[in-house]
Amino acid sequence: xxxDEKGYFTSSDNPFADADLPDAEECLVRAELxxxxxxxxxxxxxxxxxxxxxxxxxxxxxxxxxxxxxxxxPLESLLVMVIRLGADVTTFSQPTMSEPGHITIRVPQPA
Length: 111
Description:
With 111 residues, this protein is an all-alpha fold. The chain contains six helices and no strands.
């Protein structure tokens, strides 16, 4: 009996891939980074104005962040915001046997 016949399917760790969205790995990374940024803004009790100043973005962008409008932020800008929040970002590449390679980013876990 297949999962379809059972009325469910086994999910991967990436809901964007499960939905067959293009660039699913990048979408997942962006979502994790956005979640970290919003969590830090709330954990620190920052006002929108304080968050905008700290992250170097406009008040409109803070609104988009807090509304989780992921499409408004390229990966690079989210990485810069994470750095401005005081987290180190380390990147490296390595040869892979699969085509194409994969993106993996680990964000700090909330305390």
